[in-house]
Amino acid sequence: MSGWRKTVLAGLFLLGTHVLLSAGVIICRDYAEQGKGMTVFVTPGEGEAFSGGEISLSRGDTRVFSRSRFFLYPAEGMAEPVWCALLGIPSDLEEGTYTLDCRMDGSGGIVIMEKRLGITPLEYPSEVLALNTELTDIRTKEDPEKTSQAQKLWSVLASFDRESRFTTGSLVSPMDDYRITTDFGCRRIYRYNDGSEAKSLHNGWDWAAPTGTPVKAAGRGRIVMAEKRIVTGNTVMLELLPGVFVLYYHLDELKCREGDMVEPGQIVGTLGMTGLATGPHLHWEMRISRVAVDPMPFLDTNLIDKSLYME
Fold this sequence. Notes:
Blueprint: E1 12-14, E2 19-21, E3 24-27, E4 31-33, E5 37-44, E6 50-58, E7 66-69, E8 71-73, E9 82-88, E10 96-106, E11 109-120, E12 126-130, H1 133-140, H2 144-157, E13 179-182, E14 187-191, E15 197-201, E16 204-208, E17 214-216, E18 221-229, E19 233-241, E20 244-254, E21 261-262, E22 267-271, E23 281-288, E24 291-293, H3 307-310
Parallel strand pairs: 2-11, 4-11, 12-14
Antiparallel strand pairs: 1-2, 3-5, 5-9, 6-7, 6-10, 8-9, 10-11, 13-16, 14-15, 16-23, 17-22, 18-19, 18-21, 19-20, 20-22, 20-23, 23-24
């Protein structure tokens, strides 16, 4: 157990509220970087059993900055399945010390565990993007259809199917040849045609390539959205793990349908310039329980870092 990063809370049962502070272990890194995803494992104390639970990231009495739920992860080399959660760290979260709060459904009540987590800042670029009248209207004009599409997308991103364990390893790059035009986490200013401005975070990577370039699935998973949207154009959303989604925006053509199961590297669409786009490009984005995280590190590392548990 020498490599484990853990927190253990001694047992205490509060009769009136049926909350059990019991011996348990949180296994994760002691720190995380802005805009990154992290793996968290929990193990119950002796004589305890979990049936589910959730983890949240907060600071003092302020709001929760990120929240996710646990699912059973049966991994090769492990004696038995372990409860695992993937947590997204917002790219604009301030540097400092935060609290990971795990609330697990135990056999005798709610088991609460806490751990301190340090957040390390990163340097993100900035850019000003001037929009013509048409693109300004896409962003600023009230439109019931646009609102409905946004509500649907957020509803899908908020979904969590504990059985959706399709990809646990590294991701496949959506394209082989491309030119990066905007980085993940870029602090963007939209300059509208009337001279006004609006600030925004860029929640993915923009990769430029010729229109029609094939776009590949990041891993084995289920297509949970494949449709034309006003802002993001032809859009594909791929579910890889419970609450973990990869999104593809501004596609020229869709090569999949909602409900399809796809394999790593399978073509899901072609690069285009649909929706709010100033040129042909792919916007490639990843969300963990609705929080946008940088997908690039997962091209080289596994989505679930089981080495934390195996050490």
